[in-house]
Specification:
Length: about 400
Amino acid sequence: MDDSFVTPTSLSDGVRQALEISLRGVQELLPQDEWVKKLVRAETTGQPLRIKLGLDPTAPDIHIGHTVVLNKMRQLQDLGHQVIFLIGDFTSLIGDPSGRNSTRPPLTPEQIKANAETYYQQASLVLDPARTEIRYNSEWCEPLGASGMIQLAAKYTVARMMERDDFHKRFHSGQSISVHEFLYPLMQGYDSVALQSDLELGGTDQKFNLLMGRHLQVEYGQEPQCVLTMPLLVGLDGVDKMSKSKNNYIGITEDANSMFAKVLSISDTLMWDWYTLLSFKSLAEIAALKAEVAGGRNPKEAKVMLAKEITARFHSVAAADAAEQDFINRSKGGVPDDIPEISLSGAPLGIGALLKQANLAPSTSEANRLIDGGGVRVDGSVVSDRGLKLAAGTYVVQVGKRKFARIALV
């Protein structure tokens, strides 16, 4: 790459816009001056830049936390650049140690194949599939073989590897580190060599691995990629990053009603971070909306707008409108139009057993806890007596704000 510095005043309007879009909501863009030079070159030559995002298929579904980087990919894709959605079917066999305080158990090839089948289909709800290059890193990792792996490992030192934060902490706390875990950042970095990427995206927890790609590209005589890290999306609890293990997530294949309601459950403060990272509104539009709320507009109105935008993206505008109406009905104590219908026998049946048999509570003891908390209604009336027995008949049973069932008891 030309070492001459590109001053901001010399940038075209197109490059300025591309840089602004690149920087929206990011944690870091490293090195920014190199990225500017790449943007200038792309505009001058008409050759799109190669932008890579790798995801390991460690679970069968993607949640909206994953879409933070996918949104950035889509923004860059809309600028005309070539995005590469990389499925780490080979690296999943190793197990990513990022952010871990113990060795991550590797997945079996069968688990990886099953999970990978759904990944790209779900990512295509954000990316334009017609303009997305999909790759699997087993394509170049498996042919390396033992000798190739040894040659690759020779390009990085153990001392540098131990500078990685999670390895450093585990070593000094006496926790085990398996040798194979050192291979993970090497293999992720080698992906960038194989794909000749100009930019790699990832979460902040991936910074070490992303910089490894830059190092290895230089080792293999390539121009080094730039690195763009996005903040980790805080989950529904407002505390921890969105994660399935923490049960504070929204899956992008969840039904529209649940998705809408979950977005509305986040705090008014967290809403603005979600707007920046998840909304397709411009920063100017978000700033104007935030000013309106600061000036007295009900923040719930802004949250409803965000909930409808996210729900419409993964379903449809009509589904988002219907989800909003469903939420209104529930908040007023109304019954949704579409609720499961269940037939049970054993009348008269105790309310705790009924809730368990209808899968509205995982156990009778949990059902009793829900009753004690005032979270159970039968035909709109709150149940306060654990000993209630229902005679034969049909009842609308509600647990919490979202669970409903029409139960025919005989």
